[in-house]
Write a structure and sequence with these properties.
Largest sheet of chain A: 2 strands, antiparallel
Largest interface: A-B, 52 and 51 residues
Structural class of chain B: mainly alpha
Number of strands of chain A: 2
Strand content of chain A: under 5%
Low-confidence stretches of chain A: 203-229
Largest sheet of chain B: none
Oligomer: heterodimer
Strand order of the largest sheet of chain A: 1-2
Number of helices of chain B: 10
Number of domains of chain A: 1
Distance between the termini of chain A: 45 Å
Mean pLDDT of chain A: 77
Number of domains of chain B: 1
Radius of gyration of chain A: 18 Å
Radius of gyration of chain B: 18 Å
Strand content of chain B: under 5%
Chain lengths: ~230, ~200
């Protein structure tokens, strides 16, 4: 029983509650870094590392952090790990550092990480929080890579920097520009709905009352009354 | 005169060409979430502009006079996000106490701004671009106005979407994203204009 529940926690993030395509969190890096497969994959891995570390630490400290000061505490823990990851990327992967630029810093305010801290890590044990972090991180990386593949193949006629010869004359250049990102993201979400016959869990059915993005999230149900009126 | 020209170019390019929402993808969450009604879109846009200006006014001196002089550049991220969080909190308390009517209009949006990536993004970008203090303030103003413009335009478009029949899978989010893509496409038309204004 224990085994099964850990597995379901892990798989949850990859498929059922995919942070990008189902929960619609972390939209900014999703749109901004998916112009190339390499950039998207690097962004996914960077976020994965931060997500696992912050989930573990927030879960460890969940009984010490006072309720009213939790958001600043979470932000400091997350920002600390983001700084570490940023310095590691800068030292060992300078190309990736140049591609991602300011978006590496912005992992700090990525809704996925803060959202999981608030929704999951603050309520669960260290082991399941780590598993949740791994699952969510892999789900994020997968979604980003799929989007980047579509955009790079159609827009730049290459995959991960390797040119695809016969696609050269069919390039749709706007795919790698800003509008292409929004278009592909919209189409992917519609595709998910088609594949699941509209049974994909709607965002409202998750406990997002604790999420500090509750008022800005797309589904109406988690809007706070203040913004609603 | 030359300086003034540079400021105008920074302002115009951050409103139109490098629009934070539509071409740099910062602040997408509020752009999609709070743009359903025009009053909300305006309220959020004004609040973001205000916080961006305040945050830049606070973070720029700290970067140059504290972090750089003490060789603590690597703490930029942690320090900036804390400053923004504190500023937003103080601003909310201040508005609540001294201007309840303004608090009613803007206050509800303030807690959401702490984790708005556009605000952290603009403060970090100003440092990366090496802007002077005045240039940073102008760039923040431009980014805020660009955000406001995108929000208002998009709220108009969304009210139209709500009135028409949308095929099943595209309902709600997918249609919204594709509509945003068209607005973004329109904004691409501005690229290259600003540099030629004074030429």
């Amino acid at each position: 029983m224990k085994e099964k529940s850990s597995l379901s926690v892990f798989l949850n993030g990859i498929i059922k509650e995919n942070p990008v395509l189902v929960l619609v969190l972390g939209t900014c890096p999703t749109l901004a870094t998916t112009t190339t497969v390499n950039g998207a994959f690097g962004m996914g891995i960077a976020a994965l590392v931060v997500l696992i570390c912050s989930n573990i630490f927030i879960s460890l400290f969940r009984k010490i952090i006072p309720e009213t000061m939790r958001i600043p505490c979470y932000i400091v823990i997350i920002a600390g790990f983001v700084t570490m990851v940023k310095m590691l990327v800068q030292a060992f992967l300078p190309d990736l550092y140049a591609t991602l630029g300011v978006y590496l810093d912005l992992i700090t305010v990525n809704c996925i990480i803060l959202g999981r801290a608030e929704m999951f890590a603050s309520k669960n044990t260290v082991v399941s929080s780590a598993l949740d972090g791994i699952g969510m991180g892999i789900g994020f990386t997968l979604a980003l890579t799929v989007m980047a593949t579509v955009r790079e193949v159609l827009g730049a006629a290459s995959f991960a920097g390797i040119a695809i010869p016969f696609m050269e004359s069919f390039k749709i250049e706007f795919m790698t520009k800003a509008p292409g990102g929004l278009l592909v993201y919209g189409l992917l979400i519609a595709l998910i709905h088609v594949v699941t016959h509209g049974k994909a869990p709607v965002k409202a059915s998750f406990s997002c009352e604790g999420c500090i993005h509750s008022a800005t999230c797309v589904s109406g149900a988690c809007k706070r009354e203040g913004v609603e009126s | 005169m030359e300086n003034f020209k540079i400021l105008i170019i920074i302002l115009l390019s951050s409103v139109f060409v490098d629009n934070y929402v539509l071409s740099r993808f910062l602040g997408i969450c509020p752009f999609l979430g709070v743009s359903e009604k025009r009053d909300q879109a305006v309220g959020m846009g004004v609040a973001v502009t205000f916080v961006m200006l305040l945050a830049t006014a606070a973070t720029w001196p700290i970067q140059y006079y504290v972090l750089n002089t003490l060789n603590l550049g690597y703490l930029q991220n942690i320090v900036f996000i804390l400053i923004i969080a504190v500023l937003v909190q103080i601003l909310e308390m201040f508005l609540k106490k001294f201007s309840p009517s303004l608090h009613k209009g803007l206050g509800v949006y303030l807690p959401l701004i702490t984790t708005n990536c556009a605000v952290l993004g603009v403060t970090i970008n100003n440092i990366i671009d090496g802007y002077s203090f005045i240039e940073s303030m102008v760039s923040s103003l431009g980014c805020g106005l660009g955000f406001l413009l995108a929000m208002v335009l998009f709220s108009g478009l969304r009210s139209r979407i709500n009135d028409v029949h949308v095929p099943g899978p595209f309902k709600k989010l997918a249609a919204t994203l594709i509509a945003a893509s068209f607005i973004s496409l329109a904004f691409m038309g501005f690229s290259g204009i600003v540099e030629k204004i004074f030429a």
